Each structure stands twice: as structure tokens, then as C-alpha cells.
Amino acid sequence: MPLSMVKVGKRVRILAVNAGRRLQMRLASMGLVPGVEIEVISNNFRGPFIVAVNDLRLVLGRGMAHKIEVE
Structure pTM? Predict the structure, then answer.
């Protein structure tokens, strides 16, 4: 399922990033690569999408979150 559909408080693992090379590189530089476990901090279906990766909090656009497949 896409990351944009995950409810607040859930921990998920990234399976794949379905995007072009440029976006994949940008997300990889933020630590969002397949195999990484993340927690959804904010997803109110409007505004920014916030996730926690290790001790970092990252703000993603909804379009970016929709391109990240998780389990």
C-alpha cells in the first residue's frame, strides 16, 4: 500500500519507491530506502505528511508519500 494511506502511529517498512531516479535519490539522501522502518507521525489527509526515521522527523509532500510502497 502507499505510505500516504497509513494511519498515524503505525510503523511500516518501505518496500519500494515507485518514482524517477531523481526523486529516488532525494528520498535516499533522507534515509528513505527499501528495508527501512518508519513511523507515521502526521497524516490528516491535508497538508504535510510527517514520518519518523530513527531519531529524525521528515516532512514529505503527499505526492512523494504516495510513491513510497510500504508493508
Answer: 0.90
